[in-house]
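lol forgot to send this yesterday, sorry. struct tokens for the thing we talked abt
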């Protein structure tokens, strides 16, 4: 008797070989190439780049808020520095 894992592996191998010989393989390759070209044209950023920019923006906003509060304090009390 064939082990269930071996049966599944054989089925998967046979299915892969079958699909490689059909137009489905060409369609898959063409679709992958199309998607890669589309993504390349979209000027996308990686998640890491996005996270870095989000962190920089958060720090800049904190700095702006701090400076606004300082300016407000200087405007209300012009004698203090």
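and heres what i got for the seq, position by position
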């Amino acid at each position: 008797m064939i082990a269930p894992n071996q049966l599944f592996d054989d089925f998967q191998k046979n299915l892969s070989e079958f699909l490689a010989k059909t137009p489905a393989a060409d369609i898959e390759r063409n679709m992958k190439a199309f998607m890669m070209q589309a993504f390349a044209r979209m000027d996308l950023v990686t998640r890491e780049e996005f996270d870095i920019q989000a962190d920089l923006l958060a720090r800049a906003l904190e700095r702006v808020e701090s400076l606004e509060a300082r300016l407000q304090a200087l405007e209300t009390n012009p004698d203090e520095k």
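The chain has a mean pLDDT of 85. anyway ping me if u want another try
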